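Suppose a classmate hands you a notebook page containing two proteins, each written out with its sequence and a corresponding row of structure tokens. How would you begin to make sense of it? This section walks through that situation. The first entry is reproduced here exactly as it would appear on such a page.
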Amino acid sequence: MPLELRRQRDGRLRPYWYARYEVNGKRFTVNLAVKIKGVPPASLSLSDLNDPGDTAFQCSRTEAQGKLNQIIEEARSKRNSTHLLERVYESKTGEAIESVKLTALAELWAKLPRRRPLNATYKQQCESSLDCFAEFVAREHPQVRELGQVTRKVAQSFLEAEARRNISAKTWNDKLKVLRVVFQHLLPAGYINPVATVPTRETETVFRQPFSPEELAAILDVAQADAFIRSILIVGMCTAMRRGDCCLLEWKDVDLANRFITVKTSKTGQTVSIPIFPMLEEELKRRANAITSPAPLPNRAGEGVKLEGYVFPEQAKMYLENPDGITWRVKKVLALALIPREQGGNGGQKSQAGQELPLALDEVQRRAAAHMATVTDESKRQRMRLVLNCYLEGKSLDEVVTVTGVSKTSVSNYLRELETGAACQIVRGRPDGRSAAALLKKSPELLLAKREHGLRRASVRDFHSLRVTWVTLALTAGVPLELVQKVTGHKTTDIVLKHYFQPGREAFRSALNAAMPKLLMAGSAGGASVTKGGLETVKPDLESRIVEARKILASMTAKSWKQDKARVLELLA
């Protein structure tokens, strides 16, 4: 249990005494916070009998030794108290307290019992946070090796270190929440959760914006050029399902005879029932008539998945292998449909949003065939036709290269030549010579919104906006909230109203004007008014009822709206 003199990186002597000691087989090194005084030995060796240092140095050494003895005594006392507590717990419960190593936190957290299997992405994020916590404690508090040794001070130091990394408030809160769960479930009964009282940081909620009916029409027009993503967009528009549920929709969940979809949502596990709208019915019937039997696809767990059960097998394959690919193709469609551009250019028709759109698929094929007829090289003409057919089926450039055996450079050259010869847009995401990426970079505000405190912009117009759009249009049109919940699968009305009901001001005003009693909108009702001096006024007894009705409406909540509605109707009857 020796005292130590330590040097700084520049070689100078550190101003404080250090010590190494061992308690119950565990070794510790601490800064004793006792200043070195006087002149130390020239060799800085405490065992140098010829040069023990001056009197002041020896006094500070004695003070440091006393501090070390105190630390060792406290450590042994704490260990004895802990051991006594463990013995009492074992005698009361018949179970021995198991020591949880910090290095095993991620593994033990993943094994906690849950109602549903963990999402792979969420599991990876939480395990990364727990590994980061274990590494921090091992580096900054090497004497703490077990979960039961983590104090409020240790946990707080980790959270403060994370805050200094300038991570977002949401990321910080996510780390805090997973630590709470770990301490709550892995600490023995009677132990204090060191992060139970730590408050979460204030976050900024940015709500997704719904699309207007005109924007939905523009999106569908642009999606005509990408049959791969158009089907998923139609499902999202008509069902309010999430991206993954749309891509992984199975035929067993579709009842075309009764025009209903009954599916268990992947996020919440709730079973929802959704009526099939005519536009979706046409798409599903078209898919049913073109069913194929593709080869099984290995999923993330390495097991084989038979794609013939999916309504959209190609989209299901991409979602399972590369979900970001679905996101990017949706962004490209939204960029072309929603970002304004100059009129004129490629001979396409105009969308309701005012920008140019590709021609219909049959017209593109007709023009391209006319150009290919002018190509004299028969082998080139066959390769060009094969490339065009694969590309118009919605395949990416890499997929076209794989299927046709034509080099990527030749595929690009063929498509550009066909586009020029046919005098219309063929290449997806490149209207007027500009890519969708360039359009998004030039006008990011239509799909993204700046956060006041966040590090990155928030997505406000994406695939999930179709879900917000469905809910907003349904509630604005007067569809009962309970029916909307049956479609979305939300357990509480608060979530629907807070996160998904986002009407614009004019839509809000129009809906209220149409739905609310004329008495509240105009201030009078039929024979309920009298004229004084040419001005129409409300009768006194009715006026008091209106005042009462307004009070009820002002205090109305999502839970009380049924009772409040009945009271208002009774007052105004």
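The notebook's second entry, a different protein, reads as follows.
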Amino acid sequence: MPEVAQRDAAPSTIASDTVTLGIAAAAIILFVGTGGSALPKMIAAFRGEGLGPDNMLVSALLLNVALILFGWRRYRQLTSAVSIHRQAEAIALKLAERDPLTGFLNRRSLDEAACELIAAAQQRGEVVAVLMADLDSFKQINDLHGHVVGDRVLIQSAQRIAAILPPRSIPARVGGDEFACLVPFDPRHPERIDDLAAGLIAAVASPVGEGVCGPDVTLSVGASRSDQPRRANDDDDQDDTGIASLLHAADIAMYHAKRNGRNRFYWFEPSMENALRVRRDLESGIRSGITNGEFVPYYEQQVDLSTGELAGFEMLARWNSPKFGVVGPQIFIPLAEEIGVIDKLSEGLIAQALSDAKAWNPKLTLSVNISPVQLRDPWFAQKLLRMLVEANFPPRRLEIEITESSLHENLGAVRTLLASLKNQGIRISLDDFGTGYSSLGQLSELPIDCIKIDRSFVMKLAENKDNATIVRTITSLGLELGLPITAEGIESEEVLAALRGYGSFKGQGYLYGQPETAKETTERLGEMDLLAAPNPQAAPQPAEPGTDHDDRSAASG
């Protein structure tokens, strides 16, 4: 705190110090004058060779000595305060320029360092590559392992990046899990940057310590170069050397790497910017679309293949966008998961589907897909049960579909969540079976009620022997485990005939019609006399965990 006190009292302290130093200087002058007269007499008197000096002269001499000592002490205090102040300024400057966690330059200080590096590189006939590197799925690492592990991942990743960068390179941390590296290179050998990026990806992907697996820590890298043409909208007055433009271009290339599978590297190309602009428009449209009710459920029929009777519907999401038209889930679901709005989007669709399904015949089931992101929510089971209560919809008529990929992130948590839902009477279906890595052990441990064969195996079943073998194997597995089978992607009579030869299935696909809106589905069911009675008996509330499933089903009628 001395430096703070020194700064707070600066005007008065400076004035008093000036007076003190003036007094000390005057004391030194007087000491020389009085000392030259008094000291010889004092020494002579001490030897017994004469009378001592006048008492007033001695007193003046002693006072001068006291003033000199006081001035020297104050001088030492001043020099110490100045030293502390300079150290504090150096620390503050370092904190202003450096990221405290990794020791890299921060975003504020990167611009000046980049300008100097580019200018020096140009004099040597070199080009500067700007690499933007982002840790993949870093939020999941923080969520699953905690921020202490997350910080350790950042520190060790930064150390590995710094270790592999060539001399004269500048590393910086420009975001939570985003790093920028400025690397001068010979423009005749751009492959050296490719090799460097590959080295960075490999270095960061290796294990980082206890509690975190190597595959969980990967790196996506994008790069731009200082000799690339400037963008048309660059503001030369604000960015003379194009630093912001280079960072922006490298950032776009890095996001391109993420969209193409992550854990890879791309150089910036102008076409990437157009794709990013479309992506941002989609993200903005998704956010506003949720608020405006633009996401609606469509329904695809599920049929008992042995009898041909309608068994229920799978709810499929569609986006009625004023700008993009009708958009399929393969476009907006991954984006909604990435930007963190899948929970709100899915819950709105499920609530609407439950309301629609109440108008159907009670024997018809409703199947809905659950995102792996939702399964990471510890409150998802409570949210779903609350929606069932609010809709007064029988849990036994609801089936949720989860994908195999969702089982690998946190099997224990998923098992607990699914068991909670199953205890309430909700059925669980394993979707897209055959495309993931489920083991027989997982199937036996999880409360699965049904297996859905992925459409990629079913669509070409009649003409592809390998697909036929896979379907036959899955059918036998389901029979052994006592799990009913649903086949997706039935689009021809030949496929239907082949499936019937394998056993008893439920099936769905375009052979039975395209997915339809809620209104079209209600009209179809009305024509088939499969709507609920005008005053159906109220469905029971979800039972408390531990009650008998069969009793609930019977009571639900």
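A careful reader of the second entry would note: The chain has 20 helices and 15 strands.
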